[in-house]
Structure formats: C-alpha cells, structure tokens
Amino acid sequence: MKMVLDSKSKCSGCGACSHLCPVGAIQMQCDKEGFLYPIIDERICIQCQKCTSICPSLKGRSPAEMQKVFVGRHQNANIVKKSRSGGAFTLLSDLIIQQKGVVYGVIYDDQSHSARYVRADSKSKRDKMRGSKYVEAELKNTYMMVKDDLQNNKVVLFSGTPCHVAGLKAYLSNIDCQNLYTIDILCNSVCSPLILNKYIQLLYKFLENLQKNLIFATKPGADGPVPKNLFILDPAKYIYIFITLYIRAICSINRHAINALTEADIVKVICL
Ligand SMILES: Cc1cc2nc3c(=O)[nH]c(=O)nc-3n(C[C@H](O)[C@H](O)[C@H](O)COP(=O)(O)OP(=O)(O)OC[C@H]3O[C@@H](n4cnc5c(N)ncnc54)[C@H](O)[C@@H]3O)c2cc1C
Ligand code: SF4
Ligand code: SF4
Fold first, then answer.
1. Residue with CA closest to ligand 3 atom 8
2. Which residue among 29, 78, 135, 216 sits deepest, i.e. has the most Cβ atoms within 10 Å of its Cβ?
3. What tens digit of pLDDT does each residue of 244-255 get?
4. DSSP string over 9-48
5. Residue 83 belongs to some domain of the structure
6. Do 112 and 184 fall into the same domain?
C-alpha cells in the first residue's frame, strides 16, 4: 500500500489530498492504531503530483503573525460551564448564526462513540459542539459542504484542529473565501478513536452504571476541583487520562508547534 507521504509522522490526516486528487485515486483508510491515512490506488494514479503539491504538511507553514490578543470569557456562567474553556466559541458562533450563516464544528455521538464534524444553522445544533472531544474527529465530506455553502454565498465559521483548518484551506485554495472564518482550538494532540471505542466496550462489559454521555475532562469551577486521578476515581464517568496515551504520530513530533504555525483567523486557548 502506497501512502501519499513517505512517513506517517508527517501526515496530519487532513484529507485534502484525497479530496483534490483529479482521478479519485486516494482513499483515507484506518491504520491498525485507528488513525486515518491517505492510501493511493496505484492502478488509477496518473502521477500528476497534485496530492503532494497541495499537502499542508509538506508545504510547511509560516509562523502566524499574531496581530492582536484578546483575553475573555463569556458573561453567561452557564455557557462557560458547558464549554471546555471560556466559551469564546459560543460567542463567535452566535455572531455567525445571527446573520443566517452556518457553523462547522465537532460533536460526540454517544451511539457510535465517535467524534465528527457537523454543520449547524441554529443555536441548538451548535450547542452540541461545545466541549472538547479529545479523539480525532471524522471529516467525511465536510470540506465539500463548506465549499457548497461558500458558493451559495453563506457566511461560514469552521472551528477545528489546526491541521483540519489547514486541510480545509488547501482544499479551498481556488475558491473565494471572503465569507469564511476559521478558528483553531489550541491542540497538543488527537487520540485514537479505535482505542476510545475499545475502551468503552470494555467499560460496558465490567460496569453496569456506565454514563451514556461520558465526560472527556473536567475543569475547576464547573465540576468542582479536578480529581488527581480521574480514571481510577470514576472510570464510568471520565475517560480523559487513559485515551491521551494513544495519540497520532505527527502530534508527538509537532505538539504545540502546530499551533504556532496556525492558518486560522482566530486561535482559542484554554481559559479556566
Ligand atoms: C483534540 C484537542 C486537544 C486539545 N489540546 C489542548 C491543549 O494542549 N492545551 C489547552 O490549553 N487546551 C487544549 N484543548 C482545549 C481547547 O483548545 C479549548 O478548551 C477550546 O479552545 C475551548 O474553547 P471554548 O470554551 O470557546 O470552546 P467550547 O465551547 O468548549 O467548544 C469546543 C470547540 O472545540 C471543537 N472541538 C471539540 N472537539 C474537537 C475535536 N476532536 N476536533 C476538532 N475540534 C473539536 C468544537 O467544534 C468547538 O468548536 C484541546 C482540545 C481538543 C479537542
Ligand atoms: S499523483 Fe495525482 S493522480 Fe496520483 S494520487 Fe496524487 S493526486 Fe492522485
Ligand atoms: S494532504 Fe493531509 S492527509 Fe494528505 S498527505 Fe498531506 S497531511 Fe496527509
């Protein structure tokens, strides 16, 4: 099996190459650790090199020029409680929805135990995006949906990992993006969806009182003091510590460097 890049540790899994291959020769496939990588079908490939020429990981990114820094927290304490940090995402996405725009972000599906990007045109749909889901989120046809919205003159807000924002921008490089706003979450790594799923199946086997809506992490002020060892104290409720051991290869190399090289309009950092 031939990958687009020669090493897994270079690939963020943004999927831009598979979307842009002119002959559809690239499929995103799950490896044994549960992360998606682009695999080329060499019988179809015409060697045009488009995949490598648009790849954000190969292109490299210039350090973002930090123009202005704002520190803030949503005035509504209930929204702060429901958000992972200070609730800036709710504030910014409210502005988009108020002008009949659409918001793309990540929800957690309690049935399939997976995180995935979805589109929201209302506050109630957007509210499900609140909170950090520390696993790699599925993109599927999200980039195409963003493109359709932009071509239909919608104002679009895309909030995701720095790698997915870079992938989206690579995908949209020939499109008018005047109406596109992007937010990077501060991100040090994404964890394996496969490990999360296996872990949850194991919990179901041994714990009768497993909560349907597992909590990835807690924060002081919202849920009381952070327990020192969440996993041992209450494995039926908290899953944060265990899954963060299984991260994508590129994250262990780049870590916070990815955030410094952001392509997004806004970068959100944690604010307790
Ligand atoms: C994978 C991951 C790694 C993180 N690493 C760090 C870190 O190293 N240091 C740190 O201080 N904070 C980290 N965070 C937390 C995060 O940066 C902030 O808590 C976030 O900016 C919350 O701001 P808020 O209160 O405005 O957002 P909220 O209202 O809580 O909204 C959450 C936003 O995060 C997005 N989101 C949630 N899960 C995912 C996902 N799996 N993939 C892509 N987007 C997602 C949603 O779409 C939504 O836009 C991480 C979060 C995630 C998901
Ligand atoms: S070289 Fe061209 S045809 Fe081959 S996989 Fe890459 S983009 Fe597709
Ligand atoms: S475009 Fe994205 S998915 Fe494709 S090789 Fe580059 S980093 Fe990996």
1. 11
2. 135
3. 678 999 988 765
4. GG-----HHHHH-TT--EEEEE-TTS-EEEEE-TTT----
5. yes
6. yes
